[in-house]
Specification:
The complex is a heterotrimer of chains A (184), B (851) and C (90). Chain A is of the alpha+beta class and 184 residues long. Chain A has helices spanning 15-21, 80-90, 115-119, 162-179; strands at residues 23-26, 30-36, 55-57, 62-67, 70-75, 96-100, 106-110, 137-142, 145-150, 156-160. Helices cover 22% and strands 29% of the residues of chain A. In chain A, the strands form two sheets. Chain A has a five-stranded antiparallel β-sheet. A five-stranded antiparallel β-sheet of chain A has the order 3-4-5-2-6, covered by helices on one side. In chain A, helix 1 (15-21) packs across helix 4 (162-179). Chain B is 18% helix and 31% strand. The chains are: A alpha+beta (184), B alpha+beta (851), C mainly beta (90). Chains A and B meet through strand 6 and helix 4 of A and strand 9, strand 37 and helix 16 of B.
């Protein structure tokens, strides 16, 4: 949660629906978009994954590969400014773009054991346990919505534009409703 | 009564579990494992429906997808308007009625249960479980590759390790690169699988085909293999006295099987020995069968079942539909896959022709009268119909198909296709196999639209509407919404029973005389960052953006390479190497994609990158002479005086206690502050602004206000054929700049044409007359004989509250030279005279914008 | 639904991509020097062979990179995909 009393998170009114899906809202996640020549990746204060569609993560932070010269940093609420400052300092001498995009996408974390099977109803990525392991990420389509998926140990965060967030929740709710009562 | 249940066979039914069902109003019983067809036969029902065109009684011919005769409508438990009785698994409470081959959708169709879709990735997909599939996947399964087998029937032999099996699962089609769509029928809910396979193995087997003879559509004429199937799988004997009519060895042993079940074999007519069935008698069911011998000798026998085998056709439809060809195999008298087609597809077993019995080529029993030798039962088409088509000049089987409709019904020509093709070949004097059956297309069997739709149904999921973070406030205010592209935006905010016109009038006057608030969060926003950001924007816009001062804002046009206006927006210079660019609501994604295209494919040397921030920022636009008062009231640390904060500049500060970038831009000509805040703060700032007295206004009022100032809306005044000069905005093209996208096209001969349509305003002579948007403009109320010269069209039309009159914007040929003159708008059956004027009808000196 | 091999992301469904038409068309160095016919030729005229064709594709729902491809227009099938700064395979 954020210390900012005037801030409202998208999906704050859909927490119950998220629970039905097997997901949690991660409100006000700090998100910073970095674009820099991959040749300078070593300057970063956190490890920058160079292999496509992989992510580095520890307990509180993550760095996701979005493109050959683009990364998305994730951190706890209220730390976007810190992340921006750290990146500005690290890349001060080279061409770079560092943009706070924390409000540009809302984060939900899928937590149920069957979350990858749930996603397989709406996502055409190969989510088989051999292909989709902790440390993998991808930009993909969930139904009609473009999202970013990340696999961590035991949870799958999903980042989606706020204007598509209700649709994604409605879609996963419809799938959950359809699959309940049907055994694994 | 002919068919009945017998003790022998019945491997697929459970005789300890009876099932009650209703057919044509009669309550009947079958067993679990029955199909509707087997249960009907077991109950001695011979006539299932009538043929669609001739109304002839029809019974059950096959035991599978190749059924072309017995069609029913199922009303319980799940509605299906038309389906073959052989394809309906018997369930408790099933209610069905015979239908003459054409389904009828009730006016109020019963609701359908949403189908789940499911994506799967496998190394090997096996379609069907015909012989030969197991060796083909042995290696893969042992290696631990993912192997999936889909079988249309409810059962198959045990699969073994490493193979996932789906039954009641039909592959509807194979598509590019091993993509397969599989319809799995569930007891409650269906699933549509999207399978991406590295390899696909087709083990779909073969379909028996009949032989045509007089009245071969009479109930009691069945495919020989089906007779065997009904005995072995369902324990049903379809008749007591049987004639076997065959061209091949697949019927060997059938007679013994029939006798074991308690039937008599009245005759065996084998064309290889010169015997054939010439016709049948009986009403409605077969009672007598006429045979003809090699010397022309005639015999008639009493019988109630004719088991026919004209040969076997490999079920290669899935392969054919993806480009796999066929060749005629003389020994088998049929068409087999010829080895062409995608390299990821393999055919094994009988679908490849392996293990099929040799067959004599025999298509129909010759006769003087061929008019009841049915070839395609579902289309009521006979041998005579095929010959008539050839007689009429048609040669290609594809043309004969279109003329006769043979092969176009639910069975898709499985029993009729080869017959029809060979009849055509023979009639033309061509050799066997000269033309094969017409092409196959997906779906393999019919599939309901609701299955294909999956969860793409209903307003929330089929066409999701995007909303801003302030949306809740609009709903609470009772706003009426409209669709703007994918977004749902407030159109107007009616108070106390106001209609659209009353609300818009009030909202417009509020902005002109006091202060209004507009949720402008949907605008596209892109950060453009890098040492070459200015150079890049100079190339993408008509204006020069490189000399924009930090802290300033410039309105610009983006053109297509063809010189036509594509999008507009403002660019804000945030720093030497950083701009924030806005786009139209509907153009955001397209503009960003365009930027990336030029940067990546044409100018990779430019040191600049783009990042979308459309939803990072909420935008509350406060406009009107009272705007300064409102922003002050919600609290700000910014100096809002006009000298300190000039028009077309931005300042960073706080508003309502939150960080904001405030822009002085105006889309309506009044004093205006656009408050850009984190979208997390959007609702808070909106609530503060409204509490401070700003009147919420929607897109309708916004349209009127900007039109009064002659400001264009891309996509309303422009349609992809309009240049900046056409809009009277030649000033927006910087003449001293280098090349930019679209520049060269502005000096094409057609772009420099004198009579191009130009933007004007129209003032109807009757100030209460509202011209319809889209109205055509003509020179005179007295229309000449067609073709009437069209001078242009009305792009926007409104009632102006502040001017207390109607007005319109229009694109008019040579419009600027026509100012002061009169044109007529053809509007809803009336002719409305309009004075042509300059597009800015209100405050042309821009005196109001500083408040 | 083609399977498109993005040079970065690997194989993905066609729906994630946008087709970009013929590859290898360079924006003219001096458009002002071209006649209207020459300019129209650059804007609108494209090759249309049956067989291998050099194309551009954009991974719009993925890594958002443009890349080149050689694809057989007769069979729909991709022969190869490669980065913009790479040479087409022989």
């Amino acid at each position: 949660m954020t210390a900012d009393a005037r801030a409202r998170s998208p999906l704050a009114d859909r927490v119950a629906d998220l629970a039905t899906i097997g997901a949690e809202l991660v409100p006000f996640l700090a998100q910073v978009d970095l674009r820099v020549d991959p040749a300078h990746a070593g300057l970063a204060p956190y490890a920058l994954p160079l292999e496509p569609n992989t992510a580095w993560h520890d307990d509180h932070h993550a760095a996701l590969w979005l493109g050959p010269d683009e990364w998305l940093f994730l951190g706890p609420a209220d730390t976007a400014h810190e992340i921006v400052t750290a990146l500005e300092t690290a890349f001060a001498d080279v061409d770079r773009s560092i943009v706070d995009v924390s409000a540009n996408r809302v984060a939900i974390a899928l937590t149920s054991d069957d979350r990858l099977e749930l996603l397989s109803h709406v996502c055409s990525l190969d989510l088989d346990l051999r292909a989709w392991t902790a440390g993998r990420c991808a930009q993909a389509l969930l139904g009609r919505a473009q999202v970013i998926l990340l696999e961590r140990d035991g949870t799958t965060p999903v980042l989606v534009r706020p204007s598509f967030a209700d649709y994604v929740v409605d879609l996963l709710l419809a799938v959950r409703d359809a699959t309940s009562g049907v055994g694994p | 009564m002919t068919g009945r249940r017998v003790e022998v066979g019945g491997a697929w039914i459970d005789r300890s579990r009876p099932i009650g069902f209703t057919f044509d109003g009669r309550e009947l019983t079958g067993f679990e494992g029955d199909t509707l067809a087997s249960a009907l036969l077991a109950n001695g029902i011979d006539v299932v429906c009538r043929s669609p065109i001739l109304g002839r009684p029809r019974g059950i011919v096959s035991a599978g997808v190749e059924e072309s005769s017995a069609f029913v409508e199922v009303s319980e438990p799940r509605f299906e308007p038309i389906v073959a009785a052989t394809m309906v698994n018997l369930v408790d409470g099933l209610v069905a009625t015979g239908r003459p081959g054409v389904g009828v959708l009730p006016f109020d169709p019963p609701p359908t249960t949403p189908t789940l879709h499911r994506h799967a990735h496998v190394e090997v997909l096996v379609v069907g479980s015909g012989e030969g599939w197991r060796p083909a996947v042995e290696e893969a399964a042992q290696r631990g590759d993912r192997v999936l087998l889909v079988e249309r029937e409810p059962r198959l032999a045990a699969a073994g390790d490493g193979v996932t099996v789906l039954t009641n699962a039909t592959a509807l089609g194979l598509y590019d690169d091993g993509y397969a769509v599989v319809h799995e029928r569930g007891p409650g809910r269906d699933t549509l699988w999207h399978v991406r396979a590295g390899r696909v193995i087709l083990a779909t087997g073969a379909h028996e085909r009949p032989i045509a003879f007089a009245d071969d559509d009479r109930p009691g004429v069945m495919l020989a293999g089906a007779v065997r199937t009904y005995l072995e799988r369902f324990g049903v004997l379809p008749g007591e006295r049987v004639v076997v009519f065959t061209t091949n060895a697949s019927t060997d042993g059938l007679s013994d099987l029939l006798r074991q079940a308690g039937a008599e074999v009245a005759a065996e007519a084998d064309v290889r020995e010169g015997w054939a069935v010439a016709g049948t008698d009986g009403d409605p069911h077969v009672e007598a069968v006429h045979l003809v011998g090699p010397e022309g000798e005639r015999r008639t026998v009493e019988a109630d079942l004719v088991a026919v085998s004209g040969g076997w056709n490999p079920a290669a439809q899935l392969s054919r539909a993806i480009g796999g060809g066929l060749r005629y195999e003389e020994a088998l008298a049929t068409y087999v896959p010829d080895g062409t087609g995608p390299d990821w597809l393999e055919v094994v077993g009988t679908v490849a022709g392996v293990g099929l019995p040799p067959s004599a080529p025999y298509w129909y029993t010759p006769a003087d009268d061929l008019s009841t030798h049915f070839v395609d039962l579902q289309r009521d088409q006979t041998v005579q119909d095929v010959l008539d088509a050839v007689e009429g000049g048609l040669r290609s089987v594809e043309h004969v198909k279109r003329a006769t409709y043979i092969g176009t019904a639910i069975d898709q020509g499985r029993t009729s296709g080869v017959l029809a093709a060979e009849i055509v070949n023979a009639a033309l004097g061509w050799e066997l196999g000269a033309q094969g059956p017409t092409n196959a297309r997906p779906p393999y069997v019919p599939v309901p639209f609701s299955v294909l739709a999956g969860m793409d149904r209903g307003p929330a999921l089929l066409d999701p509407k995007r909303t801003t973070p302030i949306h809740g406030a609009h709903v609470e205010s009772g706003a009426v919404f409209e669709n703007v592209g994918q977004w749902l935006r407030p159109r107007y905010f009616p108070e106390d029973g106001e209609d659209l016109d009353a609300a818009v009038e009030r909202e417009c006057l509020a902005v002109r005389n006091a202060a209004g608030a507009l949720d402008a969060s949907t605008l596209g926003k892109i950060e453009v960052v890098g040492p070459d950001a200015a150079v890049f924007l100079d190339r993408m816009y008509t204006n020069r953006m490189s000399n924009l001062a930090v802290g300033s804002i410039r309105y610009g046009f983006m053109l297509g390479l063809d010189g036509m206006v594509l999008d507009d927006g403002v660019a804000m210079r945030l720093a030497e190497d950083r701009y924030l660019v806005t786009t139209t609501t509907g153009g955001a994604a397209a503009v960003l994609d365009r930027f990336e295209e030029w940067l990546q494919t044409e100018w990779p040397e430019l040191r600049v990158v783009c990042t979308s921030v459309t939803e990072q920022w909420a935008v509350v636009a406060v406009g009107g002479p009272g705007a300064r008062y409102v922003v002050t009231k919600i609290g700000t640390d910014l100096d809002l005086a006009a000298e300190a904060f000039p028009w077309m500049t931005w300042r960073e500060g706080t508003v309502a206690g939150v960080p904001s970038r405030v822009c002085r831009v105006s889309f309506h000509g009044e004093l205006s502050y656009e408050l850009h805040v984190s979208s997390w703060h959007g609702r808070h700032v909106w609530d503060a602004v409204v509490a401070a007295g700003a009147v919420p206004y929607g897109t309708e009022a916004m349209h009127v206000l900007r039109a009064e100032k002659g400001y264009v809306i891309v996509g309303q005044e422009t349609d992809g054929t309009v240049t900046p000069d056409d809009l009277g905005m030649g000033w927006i093209v910087n003449p001293s700049k280098g090349d930019f996208v679209g520049k060269r096209s502005l000096v094409r001969a057609d772009t420099l044409r004198k009579d191009r349509k130009q933007l004007v305003a129209l003032l109807p002579k009757d100030p209460t007359a509202l011209v319809v948007e889209g109205a055509q403009l003509v020179r005179s109320a007295d229309l000449p004989a067609p073709p009437v010269p069209m001078l242009g069209h009305v792009t926007s039309s409104y009632r102006s509250a502040i001017l207390e009159r109607t007005f319109a914007l229009a694109m008019l040929k040579d419009g600027r030279a026509m100012r002061g003159g009169t044109v007529w708008a053809t509007s809803g059956g009336h002719m409305i005279a309009c004075e042509v004027t300059d597009p800015v009808v209100y405050d042309p000196e821009d005196g109001r914008r500083d408040g | 639904m083609l399977l498109v091999r993005c040079p970065w992301c690997g194989p993905r469904d066609e729906i994630e991509f946008r087709y970009g038409g013929q590859a290898g068309l360079t924006y003219p160095a001096d458009p002002e020097a071209l006649s209207d016919e020459e300019w129209a030729d650059y804007l609108f005229m494209r090759d249309n062979p049956k067989g291998p064709f050099r194309e551009r594709w954009f991974h719009t729902a993925g890594c958002r990179r443009w890349f080149n491809a050689v694809r057989d227009t007769g069979t729909h099938r991709f022969v190869a995909t490669y980065r913009l700064d790479e040479e087409p395979p022989v």
